Amino acid sequence: MKPPGLSRGGGWGREIKFLVSVFFPTSLLAFILVLIAACNGLLCLSTEARPRSALLQQHPKPAPMAAKEEPLRPPRLRKAALRRLLRPSERSRSFAARAREFFNWPCERRFFMTWISKPDSFAERELITMESLFRSHPSACLLVLSAAMDGPRGEALLRPFESKGFRVAAMSPDYRFLLRDTPAALWLDRLLRGKVNPGEVPLGQNLSNLLRLAVLYKFGGAYLDADVVVLRSFSPLRNAIGAQAADLATGNWSRLNNAVMIFDEGHPLLFKFIQEFALTFDGSKWGHNGPYLVSRVSARLRDRPGFNFTVLPPAAFYPVDWSRIGPLFRDPSSAEEWRRLAAKLAAIRRGSFAIHLWNRHSRSMPIERGSVIAQLIADHRVLFNRSSS
Question: What is the pTM of this model?
Fold first, then answer.
């Protein structure tokens, strides 16, 4: 007996043909797909013979992982600001000759101020500083280093003083001349080439910090901020700088200020100040290139031979700290306040050469009639057609 299924013609042969006809195309297709996938993943078969450049074109190298982001580079100095502040002009190029001619006049003492802002902002308080200076030093010479004031507007502001016989002038500074043969000459060159980060503090403020040091080093004399009221003659002072803060018990100072400085021409401490400015300039820290600079350099050199200078107590120039200046602008509102402020006024008159008004904090405060500041100003004016309120 034949096995079932083999009895009809074809038998096993027909069954095998049927199975092959059904399954072979599907298996073959699957095999081909697997092979293609493997070749794509492993770069096998014919691609092995291709040049490396062709492989890279077909399968570009994945982009590298992003590196750690670097901090932003310091912003470049804006060209407009540089042109306004530092570009040489006909007047600045003649600064050296003009200054020498100005000081050829016999002066009781040379005084300097700087003004980097617009001439329109040179107003009542700045003029009060000048009045008080000439009240205590009628034979002094005052040179204002300012391109903004070296023109018709500045001439108009200074004319009332000249008409009274006071010697005053505003001149555009020549930075290269003033910084020549000092460590800041290279700093200035880098600044002009855009290699110095000016930081967030206005550049003019830091240029003022440098100018006051340079002009004292070049000519010698006294420097005043434009918000300092002079109360008595500086004639006893030589190579002196004032402390802003000191320990009342020991008298040891903790911070100096550069709003008032009196130094001989070429004094070595001034050279060190200028050197520190050039080496450690930081335009993003308020005071770093000014009060804090003179404080840290003076602290390092106070016991060194050859650096003879005097640090005056806070009462000399800063009898009231900026954080406590407000009440001195106000008319006393009670008997108790009047007694307290009257005692303060007497102490200032008795023991201070000048008083810093801290315009940065007090500019918006009106000078009320009857206040301590109003009385001090009234004592030291030379142009009586102006109001102090």
Answer: 0.78
Q: How many CA atoms, within 13 angstroms, populate the side-chain half-sphere of residue 3? A: 4
Residue 205 is assigned to a structural domain of this protein? yes
Q: Is there a domain that residue 172 lies in?
A: yes
pLDDT by position in tens, the chain (length 389): 444 444 444 444 444 444 445 444 545 444 545 444 444 443 333 333 333 333 333 333 333 333 333 333 444 445 566 656 787 889 999 999 999 999 998 899 999 999 988 888 999 999 999 999 999 999 999 999 999 999 999 999 999 999 999 999 999 999 999 999 999 999 999 998 889 999 899 899 999 999 999 999 999 999 999 999 999 999 999 999 999 999 988 889 999 999 999 999 999 999 999 999 999 999 999 999 999 999 999 999 998 999 999 999 999 999 999 999 999 999 999 999 999 999 999 999 999 999 999 998 999 999 999 999 999 999 999 986 444 44
For residue 256, give its domain range.
Answer: 79-314
- DSSP string over 154-187: HHHHHHHHHHTT-EEEEE---HHHHHTTSTHHHH
Cα 39 to chain centroid distance, Å, stands at 64
Where residue 235 sits, what CATH number does that domain have?
Answer: 3.90.550.20
Strand 141-145 and strand 167-171: pairing? Answer: parallel
Q: How many CA atoms lie within 13 A of 196 on its CB side?
A: 23
DSSP string, 226-291: TTEEE-S--TT--SEEEEEEE-TTT--EEEEEEEEEEE-TT-HHHHHHHHHHHHH--TTSTTTTTH
160: number of Cβ within 10 Å: 17
Structure tokens, 375: 């009385």
Is residue 340 in some structural domain?
no
- Indicate the number of domains in the chain: 1
For 34, the token pair is: 């697997």
